[in-house]
Specification:
By secondary structure, this protein is α/β, with parallel strands linked by helices. It has helices at about 25-30, 40-55, 70-80, 90-95, 115-125, 135-145, 185-195, 215-230, 260-270, 280-285, 320, 410-415, and strands spanning about 10-15, 15-20, 20-25, 35-40, 60-65, 85, 105, 125-130, 150-155, 180, 195-205, 240, 275-280, 290-300, 305-310, 330, 340-345, 355-360, 370-375, 395-400, 400-405. The protein has 2 domains: about 10-40 and about 285-415, Lyase, Ornithine Decarboxylase, Chain A, domain 1; about 40-280, Alanine racemase (TIM Barrel, Alpha-Beta Barrel), CATH 3.20.20. The strands form 3 sheets. Strands 4, 14, 15, 16, 17, 18, 19, 20 and 21 form a 9-stranded mixed beta sheet that branches. Helix 2 (about 40-55) packs parallel to helix 9, helix 5 (about 115-125) packs across helix 6 and helix 8 (about 215-230) runs parallel beside helix 9.
């Protein structure tokens, strides 16, 4: 079985793979390779689908910038009415710069610094999700120093296994995130006692790329129990942040639909009278993007042919980090159903881990061919680096028959200019 890009926004037309109505080969001719390409229609459709599923609930959708923090992507969601979930001061500044109203921004993360907390308070964001009792103390001190009251929500670790990849599970007891669920009552009482804090509710996020609703049902049920216990103890609980994590299709997965997910929300916490916040990331952008690369060489690998492409693990790290699967398809549509060949697809970085696929069934490839990696809109460019002094790939946003470069391709000179040689370092001999 050959791969396909699991998105209606990237389809073949006239013998070539298109982003919406625009051939990817035409973009490659202008921008060069490798490059990331996002579909504006795909971003909007995903957001509207979640929004429709949550209709009737007191819901605020806060797009999770960690999935893709390009300014154009953030601005697109802001234009649709989204808030933002941020996990660093840098992401907070990005959200504000892209036009997200401060009052629709939630700041999560286990390691907020004093400076980041101060920035959040100066900016007037909606709330800080505190992930430890020590963090509550720091937020209180910073807020007192600034003469403001900080709205906080306590992120609770419900000890629920999301049944996803170990490195993206965040709601088990041993994971680093959140306050242990058996500490909810004393931690909330502590927050209520601290000066300049206004505890408003609870938050949780149990992981990413969930393919089953059972972990949500269990986690949300435990969250509801904590709300009732807090109210019985005399505390106000007016909001719940339910995180994100609904999976997408990379290969043949069948993730839960937004309607089914929303039904679980209604069943477990819908009757608590709380404002609800959601932090979708991957499900908004993952299948709205591809990475386009060019085949440099085809070599005999002994067991199988090896296609060396000009994208690498510095551009798309997920296969090296997680063993993640990304569909790989030729940009020029194969004719007459050619016999496929089991092929390894690798990048040029000096690491054996720079491998995108092993024994992948692909149509015959040749040097110069363009290929597209599917489901690359989330945790692709945002995780890129300049390893091996390879400048990260540029990013392109497509709408209909037009496109714009929304992050320009850097050069090696750009990388070098960020560094300096101290004047006290002796020059090499003979220089």
């Amino acid at each position: 079985m050959t791969d396909r890009v699991p998105s209606p926004d990237f389809t073949y037309a006239g013998g070539t793979l298109c982003a919406e109505a625009l051939p990817l080969s035409g973009i490659a001719a202008e921008v060069g390779t490798p490059f990331y390409c996002y579909s504006l229609a795909g971003l909007a459709r995903n957001y509207r689908a979640l929004e429709a599923a949550l209709a009737g609930l007191p819901a605020t959708i806060c797009y999770a910038l960690k999935a893709n923090s390009n300014q154009a992507v953030i601005a697109a969601f802001a234009g649709l009415g989204a808030g933002a979930d941020v996990v660093s001061g840098g992401e907070l500044r990005r959200a504000l710069a892209a036009g997200v109203p401060a009052g629709r921004i939630v700041f999560s993360g286990v390691g907020k610094t004093q400076e980041e907390i101060a920035l959040a308070l100066r900016s007037g964001i909606h709330q800080l999700n505190a992930e430890s009792e020590a963090e509550l103390d720091l937020i209180s001190a910073v807020a007192a120093g600034a003469g403001v009251t900080a709205r906080v929500s306590l992120r609770i670790n419900p000890d629920v296994d999301a049944r996803t990849h170990d490195k993206i599970s965040t709601g088990r007891k041993q994971d680093k995130f959140g306050i242990a669920i058996d500490r909810t009552l004393p931690a909330y009482a502590r927050a209520a006692e601290l000066p300049n804090l206004a505890p408003s509710g609870l938050a949780m996020h149990i992981g990413s790329q969930l393919l089953s609703l059972a972990p949500y049902r269990a986690a949300f049920g435990r969250l509801a129990e904590q709300v009732r216990a807090l109210r019985a103890a005399g505390h106000d609980v007016i909001s719940l942040d339910l995180g994100g994590g609904v999976g997408i299709t990379y290969r043949d997965e069948a993730p839960p639909g937004f309607e089914d997910y929303a039904a679980v929300v209604r069943e477990t916490v819908g009757g608590l009278g709380c404002d609800l916040m959601f932090e979708p990331g991957r499900s908004m952008v993952g299948n709205a993007g591809v990475l386009v690369a060019r085949v440099l060489y085809l070599k005999d690998g002994g067991l199988r042919p090896v296609a060396v492409v000009d994208a690498a693990m510095n551009d798309l790290a997920r296969p090296a980090m997680y063993g993640a699967y990304h569909a790989i398809v030729p940009v020029t549509q194969p004719q007459n159903s050619p016999d496929c060949v089991e092929t390894d697809v690798v990048g040029p970085i000096c690491e054996s881990g720079d491998t995108f696929a092993v024994a992948r069934s692909l149509p015959p490839l040749a040097p110069g061919d363009l290929v597209a990696f599917g489901s690359a809109g989330a945790y692709g460019s945002v995780m890129s680096s300049a390893y091996n002094s390879r400048p990260p790939a540029p990013e392109v946003l497509v709408s209909g028959e037009r496109f714009a470069v929304v992050r320009a391709r850097q050069t090696v000179d750009d990388l070098i200019r960020q560094e300096a040689v101290p004047d006290w370092l002796e020059p090499p001999e003979g220089a």
